[in-house]
Write a structure and sequence with these properties.
Blueprint: H1 12-32, E1 37-42, E2 46-50, H2 51-60, E3 65-69, E4 78-84, H3 85-88, E5 97-101, E6 104-108, H4 114-130
Antiparallel strand pairs: 1-2, 1-6, 2-4, 3-4, 5-6
């Protein structure tokens, strides 16, 4: 897969922060009832996925790194999964592409059951929940 963002000079981390700041509500709304798509967002050198898409990505690629996080203004922990664009050639090139946009690709995936997602999400966010400084 070609690096679709080679024209952007911003580092991947800066692009990720801009994505989160500008689109987190839209991304989480897209993931809320997502059962069979994997949405990937291009941050330059890496692809990232959130919530249900991150779970799908983790099932597909064991080398994907998961990152639990808290977003300001959102009451629950959010999980992001990421992998390098170099790794992408090995596992997403054969997936059925559903949608392609600027800096986003969506692929059709096997159905993700709510229970499977819930168990995965709880495991990924266990540390955040255990050491939540906002808990009383």
């Amino acid at each position: 897969m070609e690096n679709r963002c080679s024209s952007f000079s911003q580092p991947s981390g800066v692009r990720l922060l801009a994505l989160l700041q500008g689109q987190w509500k839209e991304i989480l709304r897209r993931e809320e009832s997502n059962a069979f798509l994997m949405h990937l967002y291009d941050t330059g050198t890496h692809w990232v996925a959130f919530e249900r898409s991150a779970c799908q990505l983790s099932r597909l690629c064991t080398k994907a790194k998961t990152v639990p996080m808290r977003l300001s203004g959102f009451p629950f922990p959010v999980v992001m999964a990421t992998f390098s664009q170099a790794q992408s050639e090995h596992f997403i090139h054969d997936l059925p592409k559903v949608e392609e946009g600027i800096d986003r690709l969506s692929f059709k995936m096997p159905v993700l059951r709510n229970r499977e997602y819930g168990v995965w999400h709880d495991r990924q966010t266990e540390y955040l929940s255990k050491y939540d400084v906002n808990k009383n």
